Amino acid sequence: TRELTAKREALLGASYRLFYRNPVHVVRGQGAYLWDASGRKYLDVYNNVPSVGHAHPAVVAAVSAQMATLNTHTRYLHGSVLAYAEDLLSTLPGELDQIMFMCTGSEANDLAIRVARAYTGGTGIILTSEAYHGNTELTSAHSPALGSSQPLDPAARLVSPPDGYRADWAADGSVGQWFAARVQEQIDAMREQGVPFAGLLIDSVFSSDGVFTGEPGMLAPAFDVVHRNGGVVIADEVQPGFARTGDAFWGFGRHGVVPDIVTMGKPMGAGMPISGMAAKREVLEAFSLKVPYFNTFGGNPVSIAAAQAVLDTIRGEALQERARTVGAELRASLTALADRFDVIGDVRGAGQFTGLELVTSRSTKQPATALALDVIEGMRERGVLTSVAGPSGNILKLRPTLAFQSGDIDWLMESLTDALVQALETRP
Ligand code: PMP
């Protein structure tokens, strides 16, 4: 492991970051589990890319068969991309009736920002304060999570996420109203500064901000504010999409809202690089009737075969329903554990997307950053892989593959409990 780590740094440069003080060298995956080079088994509680489970046989078979038949760039006619487009659009609100394909979430958001600007004639995009939306020049400039060395787009403005645990929302009536008021403030500020408003770009579960799934309907007031002010809402579904939140196929679906543009990626092809940007026809046409778009690999037959197999598997194995029930079971266990540990400040989530916020004490709510790091290292030592989110890195992000079942909860809970006990002993 030490040799590979050194070689990686020497060959790939300093920008890449590995997880863990002692990085995991994985060589094989199956369902909810991973194995390292020494044959040790791990429970994967973080990986949303192999969405339907590692090495799912339906995805493996579809990709292998298509690779053995044809793979090509995307400027020939091919039926499968159209069949998939129809199938996928049927999971979205009817107003979103066109979709374009690319390879990464970054490309999807990059295009979405261009489309939003073309449709509205504006430039200003509102983002949440720890959001990550991609690695291109445009999306990096709309990703405050990258820190102060990455300059933000001059027209971008930040709002705090709808943090029901910390935000002082009581005077606004609900955290959703509170969030909408913050969005309105930034629209007003843009107007005063002569920046024409284009829209709001949000991850509908606020993954990097710290996992704020909120009550169903929470996002409706903010969507209303954006639309009343002539902007568009881009829902970045790269993390919440594809059945993860349990109640709905898309993260925004829990809130009864219709975005103007929806971007998606990570879980879409269970590891094959495929992403998409769906939009309302009139929104997309403001861009597409003027600007040609070509993406060599975006929506190629092999990636589409993987994506179709993912969609079929989510339905065939009722994975949305499993995400809903198993996720609720997990949060019930975590909530029960909070009776034992005052450092568990909050347990929140929807479906298989859970945030566990660690604090130095429940009364002060001070983020327990070092403790959270010790806990994820301790869980790794016990074979359970996860990570942290939020501006202080004190929120455990539990986001397993959808192959994670009730029977996996015990291992997760045992490792978490033991890691907490050990971390609190060494760091009282
Ligand atoms: N949006 C969100 C919410 C993400 O989490 C990510 C990746 N972490 C991206 C966009 C970018 O996706 P990709 O890495 O596939 O370009």
Automatic annotation (TrEMBL):
GO terms for molecular function: pyridoxal phosphate binding; transaminase activity. InterPro entries: Aminotrans_3 (IPR005814), Aminotrans_3_PPA_site (IPR049704), PyrdxlP-dep_Trfase (IPR015424), PyrdxlP-dep_Trfase_major (IPR015421), PyrdxlP-dep_Trfase_small (IPR015422). Keywords: Aminotransferase, Pyridoxal phosphate, Transferase. It comes from the Bacteria. Gene3D superfamilies: Aspartate Aminotransferase, domain 1, Type I PLP-dependent aspartate aminotransferase-like (Major domain). Belongs to the class-III pyridoxal-phosphate-dependent aminotransferase family. This is Aminotransferase class III-fold pyridoxal phosphate-dependent enzyme. It comes from Microbacterium rhizomatis. The lineage of its organism: Bacteria, Bacillati, Actinomycetota, Actinomycetes, Micrococcales.
